[in-house]
Structure formats: structure tokens, C-alpha cells
Amino acid sequence: MEGPTAAFSFDDSNVKNELANLQSVYTQYVPLLDLGLVDDVEKTLNEFNKQAEAAGLQKIMDEAKTQVAAYLENLK
Fold first, then answer.
1. How many CA atoms lie within 13 A of 65 on its CB side?
2. Which of 3, 37, 52, 54 could form a disulfide with 32 if both were Cys (CB 3.0 to 4.6 A apart)?
3. Interatomic CA distance for residues 61 and 52, integer angstroms
4. Residue-wise pLDDT tens digits, 18-72
5. pLDDT beyond 80 at 1
6. Distance from C-alpha of 49 to C-alpha of 29, rounded to nearest angstrom
7. What's the CA gap between 47 and 26, in Å, rounded?
8. Is the entire prediction scored with pTM above 0.70?
């Protein structure tokens, strides 16, 4: 059984710059965290989170919420 958002497709046109910035942050931090190549995990996670916020994470999340809400509204 599929959920109500199974056919939803995110339009990234309003947040392309933020997504590119976030990808850069992800590339910088996540491989090191995944492989355990950092001395202080908590400190690195905090840095990652700060950089993700600065890259526009909240704007991306807000855009996604807006689009999903509009999609669900159109299903009614």
C-alpha cells in the first residue's frame, strides 16, 4: 500500500543554491563521520549542523513542507 505522497515530486527550482551549498557541506563532513575519521564526533556533528543551517537547510525544509502541503491539498 502506497502513502498519499507516493507520487509527490519535489521541485527544487526555488532552492537550487541552497541545495548546492548543502551538498558541499555534506561532502565535507559526512564521509569523515561515516568512516569514523574524526577525533571528536560531537564537535564535528555540531559543526556540520551549523554549516548545514548556514547553507540554507531551513529554507529547503520550509520549501518541502509548503510543496507537500499544496500537493496534499490538491488531492482533496
1. 6
2. 37
3. 12
4. 999 999 999 999 999 999 999 999 999 999 999 999 999 999 999 999 999 999 9
5. no
6. 10
7. 11
8. yes
